[in-house]
Amino acid sequence: MAKNSQDKVLIVGPSWVGDMVMSQALYKALKETNPLTNISVLARSTLRPLLERMPEVDEILNSDFAHGELRLSERKQFGMNLQDGNFNRAFILPLSFKSALIPWHAKIPNRIGWRGEWRNILLTDCRKLDKKAYPLMVQRFIGLAYPESTQPPDDLFFPKLLPKEPNEDFKYSRTNLSSKKNVLAICPGAEFGKSKQWPAEYFAEVATRVLRKGWGVWIFGSSNDRSVADLILGNIEEDFRDSCIDLVGKTDLSEAIDLLSLVSVVLSNDSGLMHVAAALGKNVIGLYGSTSPDFTPPLSNSKKLISTDIECRPCFERECRFGHLRCLTEIKPERVLDAITSFGQDVN
């Protein structure tokens, strides 16, 4: 391809919030290589708010294929409808066979991705992944932007989401932003399972401590996190509960992103919102139970990652096989409070 010629790219995006945030690193690498690259991202509509806040994305193509659905005839028709899109390259980020079908049916001449599920017949540039050489997911994304190599690129492009101004009525009436100098955002959910969820009473203890110092506390999450949010609220000292704003199940992803951009510190389990907070440039405290930051750390220079060194972690199990959840219960609230203080916010 001639230098700075038009490059029209289709990217089949990941299915999860955190992975989609990290995929922005690939878009940045493509634009860095050729600023004229036109990037279209195929993604689930629920992830559209993330892509709308990535300036590198020129077009968003909604996909209604749920995670795990095959629907071969619909994928074929979708791909055929893209044949007039003049795409010259496609990057397929998921490792599944089905994720490579649409670019193949679209007859995009260059189809690039890592090997997986026997999909080499669908890709023109099917790369064998050396997991030791490419330990980070973001390295695997960025690496696809360049010719195949045994070593990952030197530069890591950190995601950077550009928030929009929250609706004024929502911003002030539901968060009481105007009356608080510092706000701690708590993200206690984790779709992965209980082995990622720090105890609710620990979240409540941290919340109470910062509330005593005059902070505000906002709790974020989906409706699936309702029970843990209620446990947190129930364990916060009663005198301070009015300064704790419960946003669980009350915001969509778009609102959550823009509200997170307004807080001082984000305390989160290893979840999608942790990666959103990092991409917003927030001070992030990431709590790791059964998982490890060695593969998908929040991409930020302002983070504190907290875990234990017990012998059975990381196990990457959804449920603790021993039933003790020590990888979470042994992360005491004092460690989190020390992390907040390390950001220049004394709460001890």
Distance between the ends? 58 Å
Number of helices: 12
CATH level 4 superfamily of the largest domain: Glycogen Phosphorylase B
> Low-confidence stretches at least 5 residues in length (pLDDT < 50)?
none
CATH architecture of the largest domain, please? 3-Layer(aba) Sandwich
- Largest beta-sheet characterization: 6 strands, parallel
CATH level 1 name of the largest domain: Alpha Beta
Q: State the secondary-structure class.
A: alpha/beta
Helix proportion of residues, in percent? Answer: 25-40%
Main sheet: strand order: 3-2-1-4-5-6
Number of domains as seen in the coordinates: 2
Strand content: 15-25%
**Count of strand segments:** 12
Q: Outline, from the CA principal axes?
A: elongated
CATH topology of the largest domain: Rossmann fold
Helix-strand topology string:
EHEHEHEHEEHHEHEHEHEHEEHH
What is the residue-averaged pLDDT?
91
Gyration radius, rounded: 21 Å
Would you kindly provide a brief summary of this structure?
By secondary structure, this protein is α/β, with parallel strands linked by helices. Helix content is 30%, strand content 16%.
